[in-house]
Amino acid sequence: MPITPRDIRNIALAGHPGAGKTTLFEALLLAGGVIQTAGTIERGSTLGDFDAEEIARGHSIQSALATIERPGLRVNLIDTPGYPDFRGPTLAALTAVETVAIVVNAAAGIEYGTRRLLHYARERGLARVLVINHIDAEDADLAALVDALRAEFGPECLPVNLPARGRATVLDAFSHASGDTDFDSLAGAHARILDQVVEINERMMGRYLDAGEDALSAQDLHDAFEQCLREGHLLPICFTSARSGAGVAEFIELAQRLLPNPAEANPPPYRRNSDDARIEVLPDPARHVLADVFKIQHDAFLGKIAVFRVHQGTLHRDAQLFVDDARKPFKVGHLFRLRGKDTVEISEAIPGDIAAVAKIDDIHPEAVLHDSHDEDGIALAPIALPQPMFALAIEAASKGQEQKLALALARLAEEDPCFRIEHRKELNETVIRGLGELHLRVTLERMRARFGVEVTQRAPRIAYRETVSRLAEGHFRHKKQTGGAGQFGEVFLRVEPLPRGAGFEFVDAVKGGTIPGQFIPAVEKGVRQGLGLGAIAGYPLEDLRVTVHDGKSHPVDSKEVAFISAGRKAFLDAVLKAEPLLLEPIVNLEVSVPEAHVGDLTGALAARRARILGTGSPRRGEGAISAQAPLAELDGFATELKAATAGQGRYSMELAHYEATPPAVQKKLAAAWKPHAEED
Length: 680
Description:
alpha+beta; 5 domains; 7-stranded mixed β-sheet; 16 helices; 34 strands; GTPase activity; guanosine tetraphosphate binding; protein biosynthesis; Elongation factor G
């Protein structure tokens, strides 16, 4: 029988570094008959970690895909990076799946990555499964870990299977109520999960309370289970040992029986660009094709490969597809499925499938692929990505390498949604941004290995911002006479502060045509130029409203260029009167250190202007510090942490918000700024 959308399961394996995701990915592929021998990270032979940097470092940098297929089942697995610096590919993968399997190291327990990934998956409306891996580790206290998961994430965390005595296999707790388990009782686990599942449906609960489990059909329980997953009312826990294989085949069977197919999951959040209205998308093979690109990779032979999830319709080889709102389609010459670094050619892709095409230059990350103009102007709601905070100014180490560097950077940015490139024309420099020191270091090493480009680099520059603290008026008259036709434009405007994170608003309040309507866009263009120039230290301005309310024009000499200049200079005039402030990025820090070092590191962070939000001991011998700190103060913190803890400390961070710098910092940065002189 051919595979249908109801036979497909899309699962991302995610989790904290060291949880065993790639090893579990390998074990699942072995159990599913995809590979004959499981590779190991130590030998650099896994199907998931095929990049040279991944093999050298022993951890994932990008996502990897493979498919398990058997009669009546197709499981598309995505192995994702665990390190926070490589979170971009992980989060991009969440847009392509119905289920996130969050892998937890049985010995290490709940870690920062566990919390963040559960949060991201919940925000996306995905089904979540906790996979406790390494259950045969000597120091794994499984009962205590289950208690900790329930205490932190809620009573909806319930085992759907339990390790058998000896932990060589696992026993199904959803369908069975008896068996010899390593901890807890199968009967107790079975009763708890039934209680949780029937709670979602009042009529089912009534029958269950009146007549017990026998009053419920298998389909009743399945439908209620799927509803619980959709609504976050159930967070199943299952157990595996990727090394021994315990629970691995059972996880595949669990995926087939209990995890949602495309029709059972929450629908993909497609929206119309014009009004943000939700668009109904159904996993119907007969409808128009609709697919979303979530991954780009480059191959030495195939070139640019775009990996996409089909949400609707059936895509065949030789089909004509549009990219976003393009008027001209491209032809699908070859259609692929990925298997690690390899491609497998397929003839069609149905709703739920993850497929790929090659050598289509116009495709980009988050592109919508469709076969009808009826689907123009829609997009899949993007996932909220962490803002890249670490920056390096780079340039080609050798003359004549600039074009090669630009190409390499563009390709790397296509592959990594959290790697950004910024060309600062006013400073004649190229700045790259990433999620951390490791992120940028690895990216530059990959660029050197793949493209043969060497760069010189300068210390990271902090992404400060500027804003205003009060309302103020600004004015400028641009008047220039060059012998022939002149230039004239006069602008009156006001600026006022907006709440942090509000961005920029431009308001046209001109009455009586004192500035003709055709020149208002020129005024806005000038204001936006001023936003980028900065007023006190050369950093972009944000969180303010500009209202243009008056001006003057000349019937002959008024031109667009005159109002661009007048708008820019009136804006800067107002900003300087509005008590401008310098804003610095504040990051959330999660630091893990040996418990004995918590006091020392707390003091070290306080010396860096950090606010300590809390300390704790998530597990024996380990201390945790939560803090907020200015990013500018964290230069060298990684080295200090490594030295203070003999290499045992680690930390992760992400942007929290921007706030005003201390006056001394603002004064120092303002004094160091040398604004470029402007020509009239």
